[in-house]
Hints:
UDP N-Acetylglucosamine Acyltransferase, domain 1, flat, 10-stranded parallel sheet, disordered C terminus, homotrimer, 5 helices, Udp-n-acetylmuramoylalanyl-d-glutamate--2,6- Diaminopimelate Ligase, Chain: A, domain 1
Amino acid sequence: MTTKTLGELAQYVGGRVLGDANIKIRSAATLGRAGEGDISFLSNDKYEKQLLTTKASAVIVGKETVAAGAVPLLVAEDPYYAFMQIMVLLHGHRKHKKIGISPRAIISDSAKVGAGCQIHDFVTISDGAKIGDGCVIYPCTFIGENVQVGNDCILYPNVVIYEGCKIGSRVIINSNATIGEDGFGFATHNGAHHKIPQIGSVVIEDDVEIGACCGIERGTLNDTIIGQGSKLGDLIAIGHGTKVGPHCLLVAQVGIAGSTTLGHHCILGGQAGLVGHITIGNCVAIGAQAGVINNVSDGKVILGAPAIDASQGKRAYGMIQYLPEMKQSIRELQAQMKQLLSGGENEPSPEDSKNSG
Amino acid sequence: MTTKTLGELAQYVGGRVLGDANIKIRSAATLGRAGEGDISFLSNDKYEKQLLTTKASAVIVGKETVAAGAVPLLVAEDPYYAFMQIMVLLHGHRKHKKIGISPRAIISDSAKVGAGCQIHDFVTISDGAKIGDGCVIYPCTFIGENVQVGNDCILYPNVVIYEGCKIGSRVIINSNATIGEDGFGFATHNGAHHKIPQIGSVVIEDDVEIGACCGIERGTLNDTIIGQGSKLGDLIAIGHGTKVGPHCLLVAQVGIAGSTTLGHHCILGGQAGLVGHITIGNCVAIGAQAGVINNVSDGKVILGAPAIDASQGKRAYGMIQYLPEMKQSIRELQAQMKQLLSGGENEPSPEDSKNSG
Amino acid sequence: MTTKTLGELAQYVGGRVLGDANIKIRSAATLGRAGEGDISFLSNDKYEKQLLTTKASAVIVGKETVAAGAVPLLVAEDPYYAFMQIMVLLHGHRKHKKIGISPRAIISDSAKVGAGCQIHDFVTISDGAKIGDGCVIYPCTFIGENVQVGNDCILYPNVVIYEGCKIGSRVIINSNATIGEDGFGFATHNGAHHKIPQIGSVVIEDDVEIGACCGIERGTLNDTIIGQGSKLGDLIAIGHGTKVGPHCLLVAQVGIAGSTTLGHHCILGGQAGLVGHITIGNCVAIGAQAGVINNVSDGKVILGAPAIDASQGKRAYGMIQYLPEMKQSIRELQAQMKQLLSGGENEPSPEDSKNSG
């Protein structure tokens, strides 16, 4: 752990200090839990009042108008990004012990392992696999035949990568994730399901992170692709031949069926499900638990199952609770209408009225 | 397997026998499948008729009014709890082979392993980790640096616990579960997602059971907590910094996003999803597949996506199927109304009528 | 990789050629990506136009009317099945290296391993387990006590099978799947959840495939059964005592609670959830994300949460988006009705009219 002054932090993130720049910062904490030596940050204006009571030594904010004087402030253009920079500066990312190549790892003679790798006990690296420089491979992880892994990747314990998959550089794969298992492809004939060889592979581009217990199927004919810089949460299922564009965020438990294509910078909420063979544009945001069954064009924000435009969807799905009273209203209207109409029939017509006049 | 008389069982669970107390019981089975020597139980009054046909040697019931005479009954105040007690008495919980500490487990010199532990082959216990007494750790399980595990825990094969997590006593973690992977925390800046160091940890309190293939993220700043006595089913995803209170039941495939807090004795149905940063009270029941996007107060029963009070929700969601006919009814009403109103315009007004009179 | 002429392929699948039967086929590809030497197939009439532009050397089709002349065609009665047969002929299924039994696998003296098995490093085969002939067990897979595995099974890395489970022949289990963990069964008494011993097991019948990261619970009293020829995608959770009939297809992330029974040839879409203790008939199709809470009879097609008949369900759920305007229409009708009715009260009755006449 490093200690920095608030002034040093401000300089580091390109922000400026309102208050005592010499105050010492050792760590970070939420507004409610921060104590002396902690920097906190205001993520949401609704917590602004906490600035008056926080015990943090300083708070990162986006604009100086808030609570100046109550606590030293670090004003940054993008406060969450500044928070990230400071977290990295003070704490760094996870350190990986330098253990070199364990004699209890099984590495094929035909596999290549780059310089500076840490290969732990009980790892298997199969024939023809190629691991770049600076990779860390934790115990019981399995690298299949002819798998390619770039530089500076981290594979946590019990990751499995089936044969022939290609992993970029600086990729992180969390524990118990499976990459490249066969796609769910069967030809049903006379009532039996016949397995179709899945000759596609999985390509995970640079700077991707894959969560724990994910399953990313290999493609039937084409590769399944996770685009550069995309981040997948835990327990996500990606179908065969699906392409996730670069810089997407997929929250935990998302499921995408096969042969679907996502553009860049899409955000998928937790438990969202996408059917196969559809195309999602760029910068699309899909709500948690959404069920997406059609193509979606660039920039759309959708939610619900079936998913519809968020501008109407939030209200529409929120209205399901009023269905009983809506149905009751319709029934009342129908009764009233019936009475009116039957009343009309019994009622003398204007002609009658005239005649009777 | 042990054999007991029905009378012994009744004494053990604090119940009483209606019928032959000397009948011998060796095992338990469902009403439909039980045979001689089996005790069964009536879990639901709708199966009461099965008491007349079951081949069970005895049946645990909650009240004596049912089918007395057809089959010997063990009347217990809480029949399901009595069933549990009898199952434990007759069958016991899983026995774990006494294998001591395998020479093929890799245990750091700086790790501590308590008395009476069974540490299987291919286990990794990293630097500074501390395992209590009487723990069973199955093959290929990974214990990260400085992890603390209490007494009498069972970690099934291929469990992964990342560094620094704290596991209580009598905790059971099933296979392929991952504890303490990084929270899904990224600061997006100029279109790229930058990983935020996750300096929180995971705390799993005493008597918790975690299902297979679960993923429990470590917190960004605060710890993720699974409260004492809570039980999690399989394939559950818990977000960073989320706190599950004591004695909760989370059914399989539940997902809870980050920084959400649950009270005690909550029950979450399968596939339910909770957004982040909300507070769920005590004794809340949440239906299967529910989508919870707001705080929920103590004792509420909610269901649906979006989740609403069950008292109205069951009816409201069940009414979606009537939407087409409701829409049709509205259309008809509108047509009738239009006719009425236009008829009204064409119809002579009462004044006209008077005038015409 | 094998090369065949189009005529040879047609003969192999029992189809016939329209065009040059001597053209050489080496592999398969989608219509849009195929090149010289590739055979493609028309899976859906909506892609029929691609037959005119594809660079494939041949295309498998179901009927000859399509685009004859543009590209050589292989006409087959069941084109997807023919595609599967050709994929197997040209590429074969995954080859497994002949490594015999690794000295780094730990096999109990009381376990039996059949002829021609490939048992990889770091595998554990526990006391009393019995593995049939020709099985492949990849690294770090765990076989519990008294587990039975049939012939020609493939267990990918890091699979865990708890004690006593029975696996048929030609079963494939993908990585990080867990079979036979305890069912989610607790008796709640005085606010604490007491674990019920789960004395049932899991039976996986012949020709089943289980996806990555699945969790299949053992039964409390009865066995959990996955029927012959059924195929499960990734990240599926099957509850205790549930019976999946033969030849079912369960897409990724499906969840089925305990004691539910499925017939044969059911198809469950991704993320579908079924409550416990219900019975699903034969040949039932359940839509993605459906929530099934009641018994379903043979041949039904259902969708939505709660699930309803697809014939009305697709329209009904698609109509949620119109709820705001429906509510608005009802409000307008109510206002108009109120006006009409109040107008009626103020309006002289026909009698008045007569009187005034």
